[in-house]
């Protein structure tokens, strides 16, 4: 099978990393993949060994000429189907291009941001199938009017063995400028409002009184960096909370965390949560979107209502005080990832959608 994948993201994390996992899996199974992505993006270099990469200008939702460029690429390369992996204009412009070229098209939806029903009715008319990466996203789409016949659920995956290598504690904590005996919490998320960093800052005021050795690292980048720095300073927590930036060494850092906290208000699934669970790190997270599929209450973490600072504080406090419970939840996370979130399962799930669609149009 020959598949043209379209990904508009420029950085190799989140959805783009899922595309890379899929491309590698399809290559190993003997399928031919083409990748349309922004020129010079990180995914282009990583995918080159397993896909024919076409770097294109991609300028987001307002880039109406993207439809023309993708249509031309489809006509030149003649794929059996087109798989659209991101929004950022690719969902609409890619759908228009595939329709004009007469090629079946699939769109993967990775976020649970609500969309108005009129937009759902118009946009998803372009797609033969819509793949949600979690049951939570699937529910949002159905509630907004997506026909159930179009919807399929294929969960995101994690290379769990990559994160299960154990902790080189002293070296990693020195890298983070954190004391070796500190209790260390990590938040792995873009610095944007819906990720809820502010709720942890509020909760941390009480937590550091209970646990004077507590240190918190915000791993990620985004437009809220300056605002979060100000909030941390105003809370008197500049010595306890640091913005550690985007990291390409998370596979080494994660096993050295005592706890991962994810206080998001909305989340499609949360790849960082899958990575944390793979590393055997217990999690405290919001009961929002697809998060309860990645964090199972009492199995690999604790869930709290979104935006509830007191519940967040109490859940974190309970785990920081109980090392045995943290260890049990960490072991539960590793087992869950191996059982339900393997890369093979994700690749086979997408292949099943491809085959079903090709049979229906053939």
Automatic annotation (TrEMBL):
Glycosyl transferase family domain segment(s): 173-334
GO molecular-function terms, A-Z: glycosyltransferase activity
Span of domain Glycosyltransferase subfamily 4-like N-terminal: 14-162
Top-level taxon: Bacteria
Keywords carried by this UniProt record: Glycosyltransferase, Transferase
Keyword Thylakoid: no
Species: Thiorhodococcus minor
Alphabetized SUPFAM superfamilies for the sequence: UDP-Glycosyltransferase/glycogen phosphorylase (SSF53756)
Pfam families per UniProt: Glyco_transf_4 (PF13439), Glycos_transf_1 (PF00534)
UniProt name for this protein: Glycosyltransferase
Any single biological process term in GO: carbohydrate derivative metabolic process
Protein's UniProt keywords contain Transcription regulation: no
InterPro entries xrefs: Glyco_trans_1 (IPR001296), Glyco_trans_4-like_N (IPR028098)
């Amino acid at each position: 099978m020959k598949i043209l994948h379209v990904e508009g993201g420029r950085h190799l994390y989140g959805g783009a990393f899922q595309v890379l996992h899929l491309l590698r899996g399809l290559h190993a199974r003997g399928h031919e993949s083409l990748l349309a992505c922004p020129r010079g993006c990180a995914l282009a270099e990583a995918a080159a060994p397993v896909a024919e990469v076409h770097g294109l200008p991609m300028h987001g939702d307002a880039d109406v000429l993207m439809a023309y460029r993708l249509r031309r690429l489809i006509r030149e390369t003649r794929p059996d189907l087109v798989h659209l992996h991101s929004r950022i204009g690719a969902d609409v412009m890619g759908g228009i291009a595939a329709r004009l070229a007469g090629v079946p098209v699939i769109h993967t939806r990775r976020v649970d941001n609500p969309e108005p029903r009129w937009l759902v009715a118009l946009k998803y008319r372009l797609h033969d199938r819509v793949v949600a990466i979690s049951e939570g996203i699937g529910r949002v789409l159905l509630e907004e009017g997506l026909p159930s016949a179009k919807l399929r659920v294929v969960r995101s995956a994690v290379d769990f063995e990559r994160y299960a290598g154990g902790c080189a504690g002293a070296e990693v904590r020195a890298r983070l400028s954190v004391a070796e005996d500190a209790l260390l919490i990590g938040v792995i998320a873009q610095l944007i409002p819906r990720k809820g960093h502010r709720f942890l800052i509020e909760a941390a005021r009480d937590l550091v009184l209970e646990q004077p050795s507590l240190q918190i690292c915000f791993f990620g980048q985004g437009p809220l960096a300056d605002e979060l720095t100000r909030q941390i300073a105003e809370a008197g927590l500049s010595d306890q909370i640091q913005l550690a930036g985007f990291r390409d060494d998370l596979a080494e850092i994660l096993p050295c965390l005592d706890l991962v906290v994810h206080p998001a208000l909305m989340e499609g699934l949360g790849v960082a949560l899958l990575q944390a669970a793979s590393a055997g790190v217990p999690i405290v997270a919001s009961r929002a979107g697809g998060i309860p599929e990645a964090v199972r209450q009492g199995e690999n973490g604790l869930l709290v209502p979104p935006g509830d600072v007191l519940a967040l504080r109490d859940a974190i406090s309970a785990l920081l005080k109980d090392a045995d419970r943290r260890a049990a939840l960490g072991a539960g996370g590793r087992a869950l990832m191996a059982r339900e979130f393997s890369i093979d399962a994700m690749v086979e799930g997408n292949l099943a959608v491809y085959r079903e669609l090709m049979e229906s149009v053939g």
